[in-house]
Every structure is written in C-alpha cells, then in structure tokens.
Amino acid sequence: MVKKEDEYQLWLEKNRVTAPRTIEMKAEAEAFHYKPTFSIITPVGKPNPLSFTRCMHSVFNQLYEHWLLSFLMDFEADDQTSRLIKQYQLGDCRVNIAVNEGVDKKSFGTLGLLSREFVMFLNQEDELAPEALYEIAKLLNSNPELDLIYTDEDQINNSGLRTDPFFKPDWSPDLLLGCDYVSHLAVYRASLLNRMKDVQIGSLQYDLALMFTEDTAKIGHIPKPLYSTRRETKVDLDGSDSKKALEKAVMGRKLDAEVQVLGGGKFRVKYHLRTNPLVSVLIPTRNPTLIGHCLESLEKSSYRNLEVLVIDNSTASKVEETVERARNRSFWEGRRLQVLKYVVPEPFSFSAANNESVREARGEYLLFLNDDTEVVNSDWIEAMLEHAQRPEVGAVGAKLLYRDNTLQHAGITLGLRGPADNVSGITEFQLGRLSNLVRNCSAVSAACMMIRKNLFVREGMFDVELGRSWQDTDLCLRLRESGYRIIFTPFACLRHEHGKTRGTVGVVDKSPDEENARSVFYHRWRHLIDLGDPYYNRNLSPQTAFRILVDPMQLLLEVYSSRDDLKAAYPEAAGGNYTRLLEWACKWGTSRDPSHYVLARFTDWYRKRLEGSREKRSRLESLKVQARKLLSNE
Fold first, then answer.
1. 152 close to 224: Cβ distance less than 8 angstroms
2. Quick one: which of 267, 296, 323, 601 has the most CB atoms within 10 Å?
C-alpha cells in the first residue's frame, strides 16, 4: 500500500488546478452575481522573511480579486518586515496597516470592519491556495445565507512540501468542543462579529470559533484543502489558552461540565451526571460461555445503578444456569439480573427480541449490548450516560476494539463499504486528528448503544423488517431526522469479537434475508447515502476507512484486493492489466454487484478509463502487426 504522504502527493497532482482551469475560474468569478468582499487579517510579529513573502504572494495570487488585506503590526515587527509591508501597501490599494499599541484588544468595528462582508485570518507564515477565495465566493453565490464557511487544510513542511492533510467533516458541534477543527480556513460574516461584544482582534481563533458558533447554525464546509499552515509554527504549545477559551464557552453555554486537556490541541468536555438514573442493560444471547464472560466483565463497571436483562433465545437451559451462577457473586447482590426467554424459529430477529424485552425494562435509559463484548474501562457507562442525558442527544455509541486493538467500531459512516458500515479495521492513529475525540456521527452500533427509553419507544423502536442488521443505523437516522444528535465517545471502550454471538466471525452474510434487509435500508435512506456522509469527507475512500481517495481506480483496486472472487476471475489485474476488471466494473460492479454502493458514483469515470484502455490495447496490437510485417519483409 502506498504511504499516506505519497498518497497525498498523488492526490494533489490529480486535483491540481491547471492553467486552462485557472482561466475558467477567473471568468466564472467575474460573472458571479454576488461578489462579496473578504477582509483578510494578518497579525505580524517577526516572521521568517521567505515564509512571509510566500504568504503574501498567496494573497496577491488569488483568482478572486475582491479582498482587502489588513496587517496588524505590533512593535516587535522588524525593519525588514515593515519595509516589505509598506511596499505592499504602496503597490496595492487593497492593503492597509494598523500599528497601534494594544491593537489586539480592539474590536473589529474599531478597525472599520463593519463595512466588510466577511472576515478571515491568515497567519503570517501560512498560505492560501490560489482558488481559496474563489471557492468561498462560489459557495456564497449558491448559499448566500451562510454566516461561517470553513475549509480543509494541510501543512507545509520544512522542505516546502504540502503534507499532512486534514480532510474534515461537515459541521460537527461536539467535535468543536474537542478541538479547533474549523479555524484554518474560516470565514466569518462581519456583521455578526461586530455584534459580539467579547470578541477582540487578539482573541485566539479557537475562542472566536466557539463564540461565533453559539449565535449561528448557518455553517458551510468546503471539502478542499485551501489553507496550508507552516509546520514549524508553534502556538499555544501547552493548550492553556485553548483550555481557557473552551472553559469560557462551557460557562457561556451553561453546560454542567469540566474541561480536560488531552494533549496535542485536543480536549474532553466531560459532562457531570445530573442524577443517578437506573440503566437497563439488554443482552441477547444463545451462548452460555459468552454470556458468562460478558456478565463477569460487567462486574468491572463503576456505575452501580443498573439492571441486566439477558434475552435468552436458546432452546436449552444452560444460559439460565450460567446467569444463576453469576447471581451468587457479590456484584449482583441487590441488583436485578433476569433472564427473559425469547425462543422463536430462525432466523433470529435482533430487533424483535430487543423490542419485546424493552417492555420489561425498568430503567430510564436503555443500553443495548452484545454478549461478545468485554469492558475495558470501568467508567464506560458514565461516559455514555453523560451524553445520553443531554436533551439534544438521541443515541450514544462506544469505541469497540478487536483483540489486536484495531477498531471494530468508531461510529457508522454512510456509504462505507456499502449502504453504511462501521469505521473499522484501522488503528486509532489512522483516524488522524479525529482520534480519541467525542464527535458527532451518522449512526452508532447497537453492539453497545445507549438511548433514553421514552425516546426509543417514541421513535418506534427497532424496525422488525430489519431483523438481524441495519436496525441500529436505521434508528439513528430516524433520530437525526427528528433533530437529535448521534454521539460517538471513545471514553467508553470495550472489546468486541464481532460475529461470535451468531457464529459468523469473518463471514460475509450473503443470505436472502440479509440481501433483502440491505436493499430495504438502502432504498429507505438513499437520499442521504447518495449525498455522502456529512461526518466523513468525499476525499476519503468509501472502501477503506479514512484512507485518502486518490482517484476512482484506486477505489476499484481496493474492492478488488478485498474480494477473492475478483482476484480469481481477473488475476492479470494484479500485474497492472486492468481492462477486464474495468469491463466488470462497467457491466456489474457499478450496477448489480454488492460493490455498486461504493463504485456507482464513478460509473462515467470507469467507462472513460475502459475506452482509453481499449484504445491503448488496440494501438499496441496495431504496432505488433506492423512490426511483424516489417520483420517478414526483411
């Protein structure tokens, strides 16, 4: 597999703005019906001269020309930098200078920004992509009501190479409470800034983002890395300023929570439990060994106000015997541990079994749990409950690990390896800047999911038409449509041997029931799936979670490498001959094969590539014929 840094270089080359496209963009920009003016604010101290010059060139080379540049200079600015800035001012009327003691204490209005439509910050050694302002103005022309627009970003290393991309999710309010993921590049509506009394020019950009997003939900995201930070620039190394900004935001939002520093610019807003509610843990099982281990694992839990309902769908009595032995241990003294018999003909329905058992649950909160899970951290229930108690939250999911510590579940992503799938098969490190953070996602797995009982019942419980699978994702999407957030928390961590419950470890379910359920789910939620998951990024692979998607051919090869049937049918593709694999993709892979969920949106690309491959093969055959004729003539 190509290294991530090399993949990004390939991605940059594939997505490079060509000279003809540059001409087109300039013409499009001039034809925009709405031409907002962007006020670019650059605080200046003692920058590296070369980096500062590159920063300025990135502004003057913008394809969109409706901008103003304001230098905010402190008295530490050196003579060389001051001379450069004065030259810029003399050479372009869009440049102005503010030199004043305490300039960072001034408001935006004090510096005359009321007349500007949008405000953005550019650090003195960072760089904008040439098309940055064009892309933002383009989005504003299609959605002029937006108050905040942010983009993806990357870094410039010491060799001047763009590296370490951060392909961000769309607006994720809980993620912002864990890290400043919007500031580079963030563009703010000036009129809102000027109404915010506590915002000053010198405010930390994280502080600004937190305050601004309290007042608006009109937030747009451009999934392109249009801002490059200088890697050697060090700001707020210990996170103390960011922590203060976050604590101020927590207080301003009246959240009963504390801020914990995780390091690396990451934080945890830990909500205090308002009450000590009863939590009903529901565990379907047919395996006495698994349920025995699961119950023993639950005894590690520090949260004590819980009851456990074991949903026994076996025909033997061994599950009851195992549970009876567990009752004799001290942990269960004074706690309800009950077996609910649920024996029905196969196929087993996870949805029906849990729905029926919820009627017996006495808890205010439900915690759906698989019997092949094992608790890792003792305060896992508290970590889920702190979010489940929030009125705006619908469901909460936990981090689930395989035995080798790779992720089995870190949220569910729409369009991943099919209609939807767990973020799995990768390490925590491969999540990049999203690792170990509480964040919003489209859905979470019911292998470990918490939800308020009254909300679960009100939303219609699990859909029995989706008996064995897809019911958790379906429920979460219904919750989202009702306006609730879905939360993934890494601070509730368990091990999960996925599939052990039903004896399907490592087996892809191709049964008619599963095919039908997948089809029902896809057609029900296609309007969301086809849009792409808002908490993922279109520049990441829909086949391999969080891998950079260089081009559709890479995606087809990812599918190929994961399928023994394709490798057996088209062995030549392993050697670089892709013609027959492309023929399969065009005829089956993008339409009838299960892989069509991830390949279909690239149908036109595969057809064009196939045509090119056939033409290349035809030219080679023609050259061979000509060569044979020449040899025969000799």
1. yes
2. 267
Q: Are residues 514 and 420 in contact, defined by beta-carbon separation less than 8 angstroms?
A: no
The C-alpha atoms of residue 632 and residue 634 are separated, in whole angstroms, by 5
Evaluate whether 88 touches 95 at the Cβ level (below 8 Å).
yes
Angstrom CA distances, 379 to 389, 398, 579, stand at 16, 12, 54
Please give the residue range of the domain that contains residue 144.
19-235
**Is 494 in the same domain as 564?**
no
Do 348 and 229 fall into the same domain?
no
Please check whether residue 540 lies inside any domain of the structure: no
- For residues 284 and 266, membership in a common domain is answered with no
Output the six-digit token pair for 145: 């009501």
Structure tokens, 107? 């408001």
pTM: 0.91
Q: What total number of domains does the chain contain?
A: 4
Helix (H) or strand (E) holding 98: strand 95-99
Report the C-alpha gap between 151 and 366 in whole angstroms. 38
Question: What phi and psi values does residue 448 have, to the nearest 5 degrees?
Answer: -160, 90
Same-domain check for residues 455 and 566: no
Residue 425, sorted as left (phi over 0), alpha (psi -120 to 50) or beta, turns out to be left
State the Cα–Cα distance between residues 4 and 548, nearest whole angstrom.
Answer: 7
Instruction: Report the CATH number at residue 471.
Output: 3.90.550.60
> What's the pLDDT tens digit per position in 383-423?
999 999 999 999 999 999 999 999 999 999 999 999 999 99
Residue 619: inside a domain: no
d(CA 306, CA 145): 47
Are residues 79 and 41 in contact, defined by beta-carbon separation less than 8 angstroms?
Answer: no
Query: pLDDT, tens digit, for every residue of 549-594?
Result: 999 999 999 999 989 999 999 999 999 999 999 999 999 999 888 8
Query: Encoding tokens for residue 165?
Result: 């991309």
Looking at 185-287, list the stretches that DSSP marks H as alpha helix, in order from N- to C-terminal side.
190-193, 205-212, 240-252
User: Where a domain ends, among 209, 235, 261?
Assistant: 235
